[in-house]
Amino acid sequence: MSFKKSTALLLSAVLALSVVTGCKKKEEASTAEAPKAAADTIKIGFLGALTGDVAMFGKPTLEGMKMAADELNATGGVLGKKIEIIESDNRGDKQEGASVTQKLISRDNVVAIVGDPTTGITKVAAPIAQKAQVVLISAGATGPGVVEIGDYIFRNTLLDSVAIPACIDYFANDLKYKKVAIITSDNNDYSVGFSQTFRDAAKGKGITIVADEKIKDGDKDFSGQVTNIKAKKPDVIFFSGYYTEGALIMKEARKQGVKADMFGGDGLFSPEFIKLGGSAVEGSMAALGFAPEQATPETEKFIEAFKKKFAGQLPGLFDAQGYDGVMMIADAITRAKSADPKVFKTAMASTKNFKGVSGTITIRANREPIKTPLCLLAVKDGKFVLKAKVPVKMD
After folding, report:
1. What's this model's pTM, rounded to 2 decimal places?
2. Staple partner for 295: which of 113, 252, 300, 375, CB 3.0–4.6 Å?
């Protein structure tokens, strides 16, 4: 082998070694930086629909979450770490909800999840979060069988089991209602549970259920059910489903000359309910845990910040509950002095008289929230306005 050739080979070997060493150093630096970046951030996942029929629940929940994160980060974050909201779209589909939950946990390494706003998808996501020991707090699920899934599962919404008895007392004592017609969407878990809550709560209250009709989500023709209800002459129609079917039911009711108004939960609380129903839904009522009217100082501050951010628009229930969900997680992490869900879930469970923008919230021993006040909103002149604020006993 010639000297020149030997020298060339030696130089090539040195150069190759330098490249490998350099790459290795870059790789080591990158590996070392990743945990540092993760350690400087507390990731909270959003679980909800941004497209599809129930996006009207998911989009505002995410808006509220982002507002909370921005406010926390502007004041130094939580335990000196920035809050990062990880978002994804489950399209209102249970299978996709399960997939998104798994990705938030295994790929994105979130310490907590806010969502889903609906009971059905929450009940699909909760076992996944429970098994992974990640805190999940739903900012909307009001039906039964949610927190029972495990000790990492919470919610911050006004429960049907609390709201309905308060509403029934108001109907019987203040509005003098005596006869109620119930309509249930029997392919909707939320609706089925909500209707049963109403039946149970009505017992012994002087309220008679004069009709108990069934429909399905997606139905368009309600003439048969309305004809049956008309013959019973109810004082109010309780519908436990969502705004689309609710609006169409009321259009048919007015067409047939039924004078009774509709009452429901947050499933009716949407501008789309009014847009679809028009004058037929005037007088219809929704029971919620939030109303911008008669606001507390905490709520008023939130409303003003929201209006500034969204060109004068008023926040709704899911904006407020999404905001409170992140703030409750931040409060629990701060009190626990740890962002480890195995640690801060205990602090979450001991939340008492938390001054949220959607009301005062206490997590009871069974991890169910008690929340006051109840807001009964009614459609008047084409918009939802506060009809009554009903206090809820905090125990």
Report:
1. 0.78
2. 300
